[in-house]
Design brief:
There is one protein chain. The protein is of the alpha/beta class and 755 residues long. It has 25 helices and 30 strands. A hairpin with a 5-residue loop joins strand 29 and strand 30. Helix 3 packs across helix 7, helix 8 packs parallel to helix 10 and helix 24 packs across helix 25.
Length: 755
């Protein structure tokens, strides 16, 4: 069954006219990215050329997707918007709040008990406002979107940074904060700076041990975690066409790890096969009618250097399997170089765990290829040296791989089959012994490997690689094992060399499932009651943030000067803190506790300028708030990298932080700060970061003249009374300044709804 088929047909019905108009206005052939962008303009057909990396543009996305951890805050905000029903197709997916520990059955039962209040809230809100609801255990949001909702040429937004996964089906799917989602759910336009374009030409063909995962691991190594910021990555070439749809999804998924706005591929036969296999023949018929509009114009791929701002070419025939990490997903090491790299850097060689799954690599093909390695080990009598766990991407995948014997193959090796959910990928893993803080190595097929992300242990060295390589490394128990050249000893002391992995792109007998976990919303939700207990520690109704008083911010204290990498995990940790994602006061107790204080190189230990005592970050900030003293956070490059979680913006706002001043921002986090009515600022001279001292008081000298394109002047008052002024930049346009003035974007939406 194809969900929302009439909406999809409507998109295709206007696509040719809109793309043709855009091509005429732009005056040249168009990339796929440009076709999708110009066909989704809020005002309809293009009437002007938009400049990449410069112009803010209003778009009309086709749909919205939310996962349970971020949906709580998004829906709490939507309840303030005064709407009776969402304006575009929207879904909520319960995948983040399930702790991996003993196995799927018991872990899901525990989650349904411990998080019942939250799941019931999400179910009732979805039922009331016309939102499709996917129950706990149904699967991971991005895999379910790929299986049911993604379609070539569409545009969607989602409250998770890995929404970009849907690019594997030719969409422009973009991760956003909850406030952005509320805009679209409320029937308003969605604003995005027109992105730059990075083209990745894939020649040759994947073979042997090399997988789609290795493409994005290589791209991440080339571009780094911020190299894609402000850009859409468009993949093309013979190598792209030869790749499976879910393989394309894997590549697009980890585009979030290079900071890209999103990534995508042109419509091709692999997408057709996948759509048919997932019961969406109607989508194929509709897409085929406009197929030439669902990929770039031929001239673009023939001469890509003329149409992309940056061009990368990768020969898949020469590409090696990669193992990226530790602690950052862009540190790439070809498998042939791992032995020397590990030795040179002192990385623990022994692999303790191998983990396969997450939204990145949890498809049928992923599981089948990894299982082919496991089957070889079992057949040859090789006992695995590491523990092993898998998370199927959806109940449909779990049911199908169980039917086809793939789960049984994994279980022969003692594999733990966890719930169809995110689990260890987002820190929802009760790993035995992690609390000891021992230095160790794990390998996984996830997308992120920041310090403490998987198990909370800062000494866990996590490496990202393909599912088949995870299987090989876990079986060998060694990080420096190269399955292309090395052999293993079986239980009889015999040498065994593993053959290259193999697995079907799609199940030969088709997908199957008994209960997919979908709950359709009520046709009329007006009578549905949403109850939030005032004594709940999991859910808290929101109060509007205060509007700006129109005056300069003065007497602000430096809260923390963050040193080095400061991701949204550092600003608002996941793991056990996920349980408070619907309670702003409680979740704020994790604000910036993972950030490194530049003045003592410690986490969660900063100077309280009121007492001179070093205390946890939230404690100090609550003291400033109680005293009515504003504060400022200072950070390094790519501040807010990682997840789309808007809690990383809402917590500082709630506790009284007025501005975040950094060398550079990750895109989603900068937008989230703006939406919540905060000042997101960058140093005009990044070396001014060094001028910030621990006891500084900060004054804004010209905030009363806040205007688009006009830098602001800040005065630093040091403890010796010496004063320095510095210039800071911002990217606010007039409407975004309106969010700041009103106190938040939501305040404006609510006011419009009451007008």
């Amino acid at each position: 069954m194809a969900f929302d088929i009439e909406m999809i047909k409507k998109v295709y019905a206007s696509m040719a006219e809109r793309v043709d108009a855009a091509r005429e206005i732009v005056g040249r052939p168009l990339t796929l990215t440009e076709k999708i962008l110009y066909s989704h303009l809020w005002d309809g057909k293009a009437t002007k050329v938009y400049h990449r990396g410069a112009d803010y543009v209003d778009f009309a996305p086709d749909r919205v997707a939310c996962q349970d951890a971020t949906a709580q805050m998004a829906l709490l905000q939507f309840m303030h918007a005064g709407k009776k029903r969402v304006a575009v197709p929207t879904t909520v997916h319960c995948d983040h709040l399930i702790l991996a520990k003993n196995g799927a059955k018991s872990d899901l039962a525990v989650a349904n008990t411990q998080s019942k209040e939250v799941f019931d809230f999400l179910s009732s809100v979805s039922n009331k406002y016309g939102i499709g609801f996917w129950k706990p255990g149904s699967g991971i949001i991005h895999q379910i979107v790929l299986e049911n909702y993604a379609f070539p040429g569409g545009m969607m937004i989602g409250t998770d940074s890995h929404t970009v996964n849907a690019g594997g089906l030719g969409m422009l799917a973009i991760g956003v904060g909850g406030a952005d989602a509320v805009d679209v759910m409320s029937g308003m336009s969605w604003e995005l700076k027109f992105p730059k374009l990075i083209g990745v030409k894939l020649t040759g063909k994947l073979s042997g041990w090399t997988a789609p995962k290795d493409v994005i691991l290589k791209v991440a190594d080339i571009l780094t975690v911020k190299g894609g910021t402000g850009a859409v990555v468009e993949y093309f070439g013979e190598g792209a066409i030869a790749m499976s749809c879910t393989g394309k999804g894997t590549i697009c998924n980890m585009g979030a790890e290079i900071g890209a706005t999103t990534s995508t591929f042109g419509y091709d036969d692999a997408m057709r096969r996948y759509l048919v296999a997932t019961g969406r023949q109607e989508v194929v018929a509709a897409a085929d009618a406009v197929a030439s509009y669902l990929t770039a114009d031929p001239e673009v791929y023939a001469n890509p250097e003329q149409y992309f701002d940056q061009l990368i070419e990768i020969n898949l025939s020469d590409l090696e399997p990669h193992i990226n990490g530790p602690f950052t997903p862009d540190r790439g090491t070809p498998v042939s170089k791992m032995k020397e790299e590990a030795a040179a850097n002192g990385w623990p060689i022994k692999v303790e765990w191998g983990l396969i799954g997450s939204c990145t690599n949890s498809s049928y093909e992923d599981m089948a290829r990894a299982a082919s390695i496991v089957e070889q080990a079992v057949t040859h009598g090789i006992t695995p040296k590491a523990e092993f766990g898998i998370n199927p991407g959806s109940e449909q995948i779990r049911y199908t791989i169980e039917r086809d014997g793939i789960i049984a193959t994994f279980e022969k090796m003692g594999t733990k089959v966890f719930t169809n959910a995110c689990g260890p990928c987002i820190g929802q893993w009760d790993r035995a012994g992690a609390d000891k803080g021992e230095k160790n190595t794990i390998v996984h097929s996830f997308n992120r490997n920041f310090s403490k992300r998987a198990d909370g242990n800062p000494n866990t060295h996590a490496f990202v690689t393909s599912p088949e390589m995870v299987a090989a490394l876990a079986i060998s128990g060694r990080l420096d094992f190269n399955p292309l050249t090395d052999s293993l000893l079986n239980d009889n002391g015999e040498e065994v060399k593993l053959n290259a992995p193999f697995g079907d792109e799609l199940p030969k007998r088709g997908f199957d499932v008994e209960e997919d976990g979908f709950q359709a919303p009520a046709a009329d939700g007006s009578s549905v009651q949403i109850l939030v207990s005032p004594t709940s520690d999991r859910l808290q109704l929101l109060a509007p943030f205060e509007a700006w008083d129109g005056k300069n911010i003065t007497g602000a204290k430096l809260l923390i000067k963050a040193f080095g990498k400061c991701t949204t995990d550092h600003i608002s940790m996941a793991g056990p803190w996920l349980r408070f994602r619907g309670h702003l006061d409680n979740i704020s107790n994790n604000m910036l506790i993972g950030a490194v204080n530049a003045f003592n190189q410690k986490t969660n230990e900063i100077k309280n300028q009121l007492t001179g005592v070093y205390e946890p970050v939230p404690t100090v900030q609550r003291a400033y708030k109680a005293a009515g003293i504003p504060s400022i956070v200072v950070g390094d490059h790519n501040y807010g990298e990682g997840s789309s979680r808007e809690h990383a913006a809402m917590e500082p706002r709630f506790l009284g932080v007025k501005a975040v001043l950094v060398k550079s921002f990750a895109r989603i986090h900068e937008t989230n700060l703006k939406k919540q009515g905060m000042l997101a600022l960058t140093f005009a001279n990044e070396f001014d970061y060094d001028k910030i001292q621990e006891d500084d008081t900060i004054n804004f000298l010209d905030l009363t003249e806040f205007a688009a394109g006009k830098p602001l002047t800040i005065e630093l008052v040091h403890s010796n009374e010496a004063r320095e002024t510095i210039l800071v930049n911002h990217t606010y346009n007039e409407s975004q300044i309106g969010w700041f003035v009103a106190g938040s974007a939501l305040n404006l939406i609510a006011a419009a709804g009451q007008a």
